[in-house]
Amino acid sequence: MRMKPNRNFLLGLCSMLALGFLYYSSGRISLRGWGHKSLYDKQGFLLKLDASLPLELVYKYGNLSEGVCKPGFAAAKMTAIYPKFNKLAPMFLDPNYRQFSKISDFSPPFGIKAQEKIIDILLAATKSYGLGEELDSMSCKTCIIVGNGGILTNRSLGQRIDEFDVVIRLNEAPVKGFEKDVGSKTTMRITYPEGAIQKTEHYEAQSLFVLSAFKSLDFRWLRHMVFNQRLYSTDGFWKSVARYVPRDPMDMRILNPYFIQEASFKLIGLPHNNGQMGRGNIPTLGAVAITMALHNCDEVAVAGFGYNMSTPHAPLHYYEKIRMSAIKESWTHNISKEKEFLLKLVKAGVIQDWTNGLCGVEC
After folding, report:
1. Model confidence over 100-124: pLDDT tens digits?
2. For the domain 55-362, what is the CATH code?
3. Which residue, among 294, 267, 299, 285, has the nearest Cα to 82 in the 3D structure?
4. Is the bond preceding 315 in cis, omega lying within 30 degrees of 0?
């Protein structure tokens, strides 16, 4: 005789089917107790990454012509692989920076705690807080971060780099004499006191000078540069620093420290260390610049990134003869974990790597 299904059994079966549907349709529910694995890694990134567009982005960007700037593309792709991404993070500090609460609870480099007074003085002097009227008014901006790697040598990428709306350079990497490979255009140069160009003749004719402050002393150094005051002492810096920056105050900016905080604690997953600078928890300036661009640019590319330690005799930087073998273990950075993060962005097509130094044969 056939038994009729028990009502409770049917209810339980329906519940299980509903949970299964939710799991496979959204990919957000992890039924670890039933042997299923999460679709996301511990940082919150999709485990399975590829450069193909999700269906909703195909509808949005699929019909755009080749070479046309895609509004919101980098942020949309970033959100697709990292749902916790929130685009609302201004590029530079402005007089309303206190409203950006995520930086108020941390001291440099992760925030502005105890630096408000000097920041107010600096912002009152610079009076400008964006990229400039023309760039700020653009509805779609393409950005490229030009790293300093020797991988740029003999690539002849200069003309293509100059075609970007925003060209971001780092520290003291020169342009003059290397235009064929690195371009001649500089929208901004992000640096810190020890990394800034020291010979004034090496500066571009025009560009924004952007401070990324890694310690409280960096803000005091910037005050000397903004007000063109003589720097009597360099105590507290780990090497020599620039004593003069040939820029008007209106061409100087302070990078939002939230990008250091986000890159370190959220995206790369470096040690929190109670919000203090510690061993292996400071992202490189390149990773910080990329994080900033994801929030403020519609399309993002990089060039000159990636160290290949299997080629110790290759040039470390495009502008000097130091070899790859000169790289030593860094106290502040974790290059391997940082590369894992950047590799995710390249594999998923969030950023384009023109010199293929991040992926190599992995992409």
Report:
1. 889 999 999 999 999 999 999 999 9
2. 3.90.1480.20
3. 267
4. no
